[in-house]
Design a protein that fits this description.
Length: about 270
């Protein structure tokens, strides 16, 4: 395949975004994406739920694929002939989703919608979902309840993005084995794990999943306050053998890290 004789430059951006401040978040992310493209990035990776984070009204703060927010990134991708993965709080057919939208010179390349919503069976501990829900306080939780509010996608997928086949997975998806089985059955050139949580660099799954699947893994995260929850960042890029190639700070500071695809194909 042609891409195996070429190298690609990756930029992974961790940003501090504000819940519900869609215009502000999009404006900031477009500036950082432009910087990445000017720096020679072929692929730019942004965090989960970048446009609106978590809010009590996901339909109000969600945006459609044909909206001005998505168009702005399409315009950038076309101008620079490169690709960007936007974390979109999406409204699709009247329902809210947490989506990874890949945009390129040709426009919208594809959309993956988060499929295993928070909390799922492996996350709410002893008892059942009803027990977890009985103790749920939306303000204390920073509105981090997806199940029953956000619509679920159809399962993780491998998507052709430019010359790379990219495995798409979002945050809580990663707690379910079947989410990773997709990539074991159809090993991609790269796995992109989009996140919005505490400190990603401390998650042992990142190197372990890369090793067991035999594919490089890019994992992005946000930083700063999501309501009162402080997110430390720790975005990370690991090679196919699980070794760390690039890692962002874990102090909650905005940062862009870089990696070359050719350096990630260790085995």
């Amino acid at each position: 395949m042609a891409h195996r004789e070429k190298d690609f430059k990756f930029a992974v951006v961790q940003l501090d975004t504000i819940a519900g401040a869609v215009a502000h978040n999009v404006h900031k992310a477009m500036n950082w994406t432009r910087r990445a493209f000017l720096g020679g990035a072929h692929y730019v990776f942004l965090h989960e739920g970048l446009t609106a984070d978590y809010t009590p009204e996901p339909l109000r703060y969600g945006r459609a694929l044909d909206g001005v927010e998505v168009f702005g990134f399409c315009h950038l991708a076309k101008e620079y002939g490169a690709y960007v993965a936007l974390g979109l709080n999406e409204v699709y057919r009247g329902r809210p989703y947490i989506s990874m939208v890949w945009l390129g010179p040709e426009g919208i390349v594809g959309v993956y919608r988060k499929s295993y919503l928070w909390p799922n069976e492996s996350q709410y501990g002893p008892g059942d979902y009803g027990d977890w829900l009985a103790t749920y306080n939306p303000i204390e939780a920073g509105y981090r309840q997806e199940r029953g509010i956000i619509s679920a996608g159809d399962g993780t997928t491998v998507m052709q993005v430019g010359e790379l086949r990219i495995g798409c997975i979002i945050c809580a998806d990663g707690s379910r084995e079947e989410a990773w089985d997709t990539f074991k059955a159809e090993r991609p050139d790269l796995i992109f794990w989009q996140n919005n949580r505490g400190n990603l660099a401390r998650d042992e799954q990142v190197p372990r999943r890369a090793r067991e699947i035999g594919a490089p893994l890019v994992a992005s995260n946000r930083v700063g306050f999501s309501h009162h929850h402080f997110q430390a960042g720790g975005s990370i890029v690991v090679a196919a053998d699980g070794s760390t190639v690039a890692k962002a700070n874990e102090e909650g500071q905005e940062e862009m890290i870089w990696a070359h695809y050719a350096a990630l194909k260790k085995s």
